[in-house]
Design goal:
Length: 119
């Protein structure tokens, strides 16, 4: 859930508020189901249905956000990285994929935002 503000900011920046909100909602539900599993010590019965739906929703939202970003002048690498974060975060989690996700957000946070032109 720590990435929610980042996704919402990207949605605003690229005129794709809805895809960003979908990503955040999917991440919130996935987070709750995951923490439920941690608290119970095992996955709840609904986990096997809800978690994949959330991941697919996150991926589709990321693709929509990437398309919007590309249309607004973002680099191809940046646009490809958005959906790739889903793969890095979830399927590659056992192999340190979260570090790739963290590196993306850290790099994005340290980039200087473009300044408006002075008239």
């Amino acid at each position: 859930m720590l990435t929610a503000p980042g996704y919402l900011a990207l949605g605003r920046r690229f005129g794709a508020d809805r895809p960003a909100q979908v990503i955040v909602a999917a991440n919130l539900v996935l987070s709750v189901t995951t923490w439920t599993s941690v608290a119970r010590g095992a996955d709840a019965g609904f986990f096997d249905v809800i978690a994949p739906l959330c991941i697919v929703t996150w991926l589709v939202g990321s693709i929509a956000l990437a398309v919007a970003a590309r249309r607004r002048g973002a680099s191809l690498g940046f646009a490809v990285a958005l959906p790739a974060l889903v793969v890095a975060t979830i399927p590659l989690a056992q192999f340190g994929g979260g570090l790739l996700t963290a590196a993306f957000w850290a790099a994005l946070a340290t980039r200087r935002a473009p300044q408006p032109a002075l008239a």
